[in-house]
Give the backbone structure.
Amino acid sequence: MRLLNRFLLGSVTAFTAAGAAHAADLPVKKAAPIEYVRVCSAYGAGFFYIPGTDTCLRISGRARFEGAYQTSSSRQPGAVGETSGYRGLARFNLDARTQTAYGTLRAFVRLDAASRTGVIHSGTMLRIGQAYGATGVDERGQAQQYVNVDKAFIQFAGLTAGRASSFYDFYAHDFEFYGATSGSDNSSTNLLAYTGTFGNGVSATLSVEDPVYTRSPVFSPSGNALTPTFVGYTDGRPSRYGNVDTVQRSRLPDFVGALRVDQAWGSAQLSAATHEINVGNLSTATAAGAGGVLTGIRHANSVQGWGVQGGVKFNLPSIAPGDTLYLQGAYANGAQSYAGYCMIAGCYAQSNTGFDTQKFEQYFADASINPFTGQLQTSTSFSAVASYLHYWSPEWRSALFGSYGEQDFSAGARLAQGALFSLVNPSGNSFGTNGVGVPGTRFYQLSQALRDTYQYVLGGSLIWSPVTDLDIGVEAFYTQVGVKSGRVIDLDKGPGAYGAVAAINNGTFVPRTATQDSMTHVRLRVQRDF
């Protein structure tokens, strides 16, 4: 037995030694070195180096809840007439920067997505394809999914290319939740721009920008982009007409220039922009009246609308750290979005109620077509805005804001549209709510189409930030819109009045009228940035 034990022990020892020798002959596999993410301090907090590159990246975002109450006393059948609404929003930001011999190369991307219901839904976003409406019986026109490539631009050696905020804009509702004040705020447009700096905070920018996002329609009495124009006369009186296609084509871009100064006291900017208005050809179809002398109406010449804006921002640390005052004014001819008159209502329809079931519609058309000449007649608009942000403490701040604006159509433009009303509507029917009426009649005096209007907004907010990057706040504002002279049919009290033109003119039907309408809006917001 002792001999057997010695044999087994010797065998194990020999086997172990042999195995160790064999293992020593195998190559050793080394672990790959770990690349740790390094902090990049060159561009501020939150940046890190993308592993294996010299590019710094910051990933950030936002989550937001909003609930709103808005007054509504509508009696119109089928109208939405809602008073509440809700929104949940998600935002994602990517900011990549690389230092080069020409300066910083930057790419920035921002994606927004939201679910919106009730009074927070947006007809403007729906019209330009950035929101997708529900189709249910109770949800149609009341629920939307909203997706937007808000920013996607490259900056390099003074060049900015991509989707960014218009260089025309200055205040752009910096201190507001809703963005109710008048003033240009084109936060997402496609552009190619160059900015030159001259020292002491002075810079100048020339920008070529997408015209689609600053376009308001050319007035169409039918509301379907067809505008009648006289093509025949009998005994010196118009007797035949054809329709001009008023759908605008993208041809020339908007040209924007801005001169800006940024210093310790604040900032100031002077902006100017041009915007082409164009329409299609006269259709071959004519209507009403046969015979007579036919006229050769020329194709409507394109018109260059324009806008100018000046603004100043004052830093007021002597009152409280962070206090800021904005003052801004703008004027536009044939380019009312550059005055921002349509901001509360939406700039992409020729007329809008601004808030659900308004008593009458405001017209935002950049131009109308003279039916005698076939040429464009532009509108004018202006706006003035003031906004003040005050910090009561590092955790509490509030804003006060207000604006006033007007849009005017020449008297000749409305008279010219009225001249064709009886010819195009021999039965006395209107073009719906776009009907001007025959000059001298009661309906013409009361119709809302191409009426000069005004609007003003007054509001304020209070925000609590208990911790960094968390805002809990409430905003309230009051807005009033009105016609500058005369009265208009009250759509709330007489929603069918525009189908009773003859009865209004002969006095058998006297519609209720109004000179102004107003709305109060309150919004709660909870927002976390990260």
About this structure: The helical segments are 2-25, 123-127, 411-419, 421-424, 442-446, 501-506. The first strand starts at residue 48 and ends at 49.
